[in-house]
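WARN no homologs supplied; continuing
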Amino acid sequence: MVANQNLKTPCYIIDEKKIIKNLEILHGVEQRTGCKILLAQKAFSCYHLYPLIGKYVSGTACSGLYEARLGYECMGKANHVFSAGYRSDEIDEIISYCDHIIFNSFGQMKKYREKVLTAGKKIGLRINPECSTQSGHEIYDPCSPSSRLGITLKNFEDNLDGVSGFHFHTLCEQNSDDLETTLKAIEEKFGKYLKLENIKWINFGGGHHITRDDYNIPLLEKCIRHMQDKYNLEVFLEPGEAFALNAGYLVTRVLDIIENDMPIAILDTSASCHMPDVLEMPYRPPLKYSGILGEKKYSYRLGSQTCLTGDVIGEYSFDEPLKIDDVLIFEDMAIYSMVKNNTFNGMPLPSIELLKCDGCMENLKTFGYDDFKCRL
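OK structure emitted
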């Protein structure tokens, strides 16, 4: 992908062809196993593409009222909701939008059980297998010792009246070998509950990097079939990143080049505002046509025009010197960036463009001053 020099920056670009490639992979898993895959909207909520996504997968997964309504209105298929805590002034509306309501505690389940069952919807419980399969990012580890997500075995109750399924979410950008490890822990701790007559489904949650080149899809399908065959359960998965992995860009422009301990390029985008995970994770986002520091002849630190000293994207090298007005293209920017961005310092939100399969560009959304003002 080569950005048009006349494109107004900053902007996000979603690559329709790459989205479809990801969707075909996910659809293949559904077709071969009979599982149902749901879009985790927390990673990618570009509802303009929901009609396209809905042609390939079974529905949406949400974390609260607004996502529940978005999935209901814009895709209108299966809709699962999990929240660490539901508000009493929102629960009725949430139930109206969702078919599976998943609770984080027995207390909340008992509080709202009759409402859910009266509405003819399904009740699930989130379980915590206390099996960490990731390292380095405890903030994203739902199985950490201090986790507030999921019910541990010692806090589990035998009375599952009204409950028809279980949910777990323990992975983050991981392969299916970690899913296999997690399922073994779940069977060891919660196996007797999986065998109950009233338990009909299990949701594997998200964090499955299914569309990544090195992802072991046959092992994923083996895991799905194992739970289907051994426990006669309907299996759901709710990946988020896999839907738009490597299918988006953030296009930015060089505003100035200054000198300190090394050349510093000031861009019209911001890590803090437009790609918050760069600072929260933290990580160094991929940049098209660049190398790591020192790999190529000319090295630069890339930073924002905001007043936050630490608003630095990273250090990169290039074959040619950067010039003012050069256009740079950050990759893998469809996931999380758009749903987490903000207007700190009055930074404008990037527009959202769709690079269509025929090569044409379609503007999906443009933001202005009112979008900044109305958030305050």
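Residues 248-333+341-373 form a domain with the Lyase, Ornithine Decarboxylase; Chain A, domain 1 fold (CATH 2.40.37.10).
OK
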